[in-house]
């Protein structure tokens, strides 16, 4: 069973060094979080798993890391300056601010309306102001003179950095259609909605890929293009299920209705997860046609096209965009891994059952006690495994408590060193260690000589 309430995860994240509310000593900073020593490892592992599936294991996708501070006209071309807005309303009674679309979607519970059918404040049923459009992009200033010419935006998504480098990648990497460009990095959105922990934050990381393909022969009936879109939806869904280990019953694909679709989009589907408060988006997979390359070609006066060797024509490729949230996926990985169950003694234990590939710490080397006689061999084991896997060394407190601590941070294997390993009373040790499995709590003895080979088998993809 995954965690069913967010508070449990929020408190575990802080207690065990995954995620801290930002700037707590200054009273906190709304909708921002800091990733602690374990959070940074978990985030890196999820990002690496995505990069592995999307770039390293594919012949047709390459990576990119475009500048964060982007030319302001990029955001004009992309439509963000004109339309990346949220409709905001204020309650005239309690003065709380809301996103009208979120109230209408029922995100704050059943929608309250007055006799005329107007939506009312979810908090106290008060009358709401007329909606105002509020642009979500953060502005920044370049140089010392603060005027319009020096204004730039922080990126609200990673995609545009990919589009403006389309020609650079085609030319430098000799790419033929179809191919993709992948990028992971931070994005910024001035979200006013009170966040649900790291589900919605001002600053978050995304993992996006733009897959460029031949335009369809018939724009009105792009069957092959839609089949490719479907293939990407399937691939992404199975990544969450098979690589991250998210239970299939809490994942679904939701196709956008016609009215919900952007005017340019041929189809969009979201991969959604069943959060403790209901279904929410993890990733959007949009069939964006030729919108972006055409828009940048028009705005810059530099057409972004591809030379089709067969027809000897310059064409504008069509695009499929799987856009995932890294930090939101991290929240899901924590929720899914959280388990409470009886330990060997029948007492309650908390275990984070991460897949080994994402677990922040893979191994813990635990001498049975602080006894000096155990230390040299324990350090030898530690030195052997730590260049290969993220490993903790811990000799304080009872072994039972140390197992519990490792269970709570999701370490798949503990390596215990005891007197049988090092020898006692003049008797030589057997130079073997005990491996204790996080999930089954079973223990096996393994000679030092075959330790690395055994661990390789038991830590697939690490
Ligand atoms: P939402 O409807 O939840 O605001 P969106 O449709 O605006 O999301 P996209 O622009 O498609 O989101 O971005 C792709 C992914 O980036 C989302 O599926 C989500 O995982 C992540 N994401 C978007 N906004 C945020 C945010 N403010 N905080 C954390 N993750 C986010």
Which helices and strands appear, and what pairs or packs with what?
Elements: H1 6-15, E1 19-21, E2 33-35, H2 37-56, E3 61-63, H3 72-77, H4 80-83, E4 85-90, E5 97-99, H5 100-104, E6 132-135, E7 139-141, E8 151-153, H6 159-163, H7 166-173, E9 179-188, E10 203-213, H8 223-243, E11 251-255, E12 267-275, E13 278-289, H9 291-300, E14 306-308, E15 313-315, E16 318-325, H10 326-337, E17 338-342, E18 348-352, E19 363-367, H11 375-385, E20 391-393, H12 399-409, E21 413-417, H13 419-422, E22 432-437, E23 443-447, H14 451-458
Parallel strand pairs: 3-9, 19-20, 19-21
Antiparallel strand pairs: 1-2, 4-5, 4-6, 7-8, 9-10, 10-16, 11-12, 12-13, 13-16, 14-15, 17-18, 21-22, 22-23
Helix pairs in contact: 2-10
This protein binds adenosine-5'-triphosphate.
The site of adenosine-5'-triphosphate has 16 residues, from strand 10, strand 13, strand 16 and helix 10.
Question: How would you classify the helix and strand content by structural class?
Answer: alpha+beta
E-strand count: 23
- Strand order across the largest sheet: 3-9-10-16-13-12-11
N-C termini distance: 25 Å
Strand content: 25-35%
Mean pLDDT: 93
| Total number of helices | 14
Question: Globular, elongated, flat, extended or rod-shaped: what is the shape?
Answer: globular
Q: Which hetero compounds are present in the coordinates?
A: adenosine-5'-triphosphate
Low-confidence stretches: none
User: For the CA atoms, what is the radius of gyration?
Assistant: 26 Å
